[in-house]
Amino acid sequence: MSNIIITHLWFNNQAEEAARFYISVFPNSKINRITRYGNKMVGNLEGEVMTVEFELDGRKFVAFNGGPKYKFTEAISLIVNCETQEEIDYYWEKLSEGGDESAQAIGWLKDKFGVSWQVIPTTLTDMMSDKDSSKVERVLKELRLMKTKLDLNKLQKAYDG
User: Fold this and answer.
1) Closest CA to 154 of 113, 100, 106, 110
2) Domains in the chain, please, with CATH?
3) 0.85 cut: is pTM over it?
4) pLDDT, tens digit, for every residue of 32-74?
């Protein structure tokens, strides 16, 4: 029953480009299958990429070239949990390259394909759910000061008081 839920991403015409980009960023990733439009598909040329099935670190995705009708919004985002500041820096740099800089805020970014990502330390959830409300308030205050990429050391210092 693993991978019973698969994320489906609708692109205008960059499904293959996006999938290849994402597998270059994440370890243990690969393209599994590419399907192409046939000659009876309305609005598409025969042989154009229709879907790309790929995995990012074992999680399955489907990228679909469906045309310009739908756009990505921040209502859905993909979370990248990072253990270290080095991981945060790496994923932030790779995923934000060519993306919408005006959409960067407090660990959120929009990549060059319009997909929203949250690049966050794994410890943030624990910090935010601590029973000591003063710790949570200090972390929230520090988060509000971070305009783009998160700084794990500053968050940890705020948490520790």
Assistant:
1) 106
2) 7-65 (3.30.720.100), 77-160 (3.10.180.10)
3) yes
4) 999 999 876 666 677 899 999 999 999 999 999 999 999 999 9
